[in-house]
């Protein structure tokens, strides 16, 4: 299976794939970051540094735009997502401070 489209920025790549099931065509997107380790070998990860987030948002946004405009059919899964309400962001008032919640440490 060949990728239909790829978007990359500084080693961060979003790849759009075309899939078919039950006569319906739909797109999926894979995502990874490529880097060289200390020995100079290429590695791949889906873990990002905070400074990578703008690039990740950009390539994933492009992949979404491509897939949304290219989709010939809408699968029931996509229809379900489209009709599901998305919670609105909560904004702190000017008198409140917002701090990130600590993530549990895993071994």
Q: How does this structure look, described?
A:
The protein is α+β, with helices and mostly antiparallel strands and 107 residues long. The chain contains two helices and four strands. The chain has helices at 53-70, 76-83, and strands at residues 5-9, 12-21, 24-36, 42-45. It has a four-stranded antiparallel beta sheet with strand order 1-2-3-4, with helices on one face. The relative contact order is 0.17.
Span between N and C termini?
A: 36 Å
| Biggest sheet layout | 4 strands, antiparallel
Q: Report the C-alpha radius of gyration, rounded.
A: 18 Å
Beta content comes to 25-35%
Helix and strand pattern: EEEEHH
Oligomer: single chain
**Fraction of residues in helix:** 10-25%
Secondary structure class reads alpha+beta
Count the helices. How many?
2
The unreliable regions are 83-101
Which outline best applies?
elongated
Averaging pLDDT over every residue, what do you get? 78
Number of strands: 4
- The strand order across the widest sheet is 1-2-3-4
């Amino acid at each position: 299976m060949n990728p239909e489209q790829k978007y990359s920025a500084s080693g961060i790549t979003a790849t759009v794939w075309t899939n078919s099931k039950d006569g319906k065509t739909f797109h999926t997107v894979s995502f990874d970051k490529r880097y060289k380790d200390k020995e100079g070998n290429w590695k791949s990860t889906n873990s990002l540094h905070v400074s990578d987030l703008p690039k990740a948002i950009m390539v994933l946004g492009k992949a979404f735009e491509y897939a949304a405009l290219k989709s010939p059919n809408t699968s029931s899964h996509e229809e379900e997502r489209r009709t599901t309400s998305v919670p609105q962001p909560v904004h702190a008032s000017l008198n409140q401070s917002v701090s990130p919640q600590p993530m549990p440490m895993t071994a």
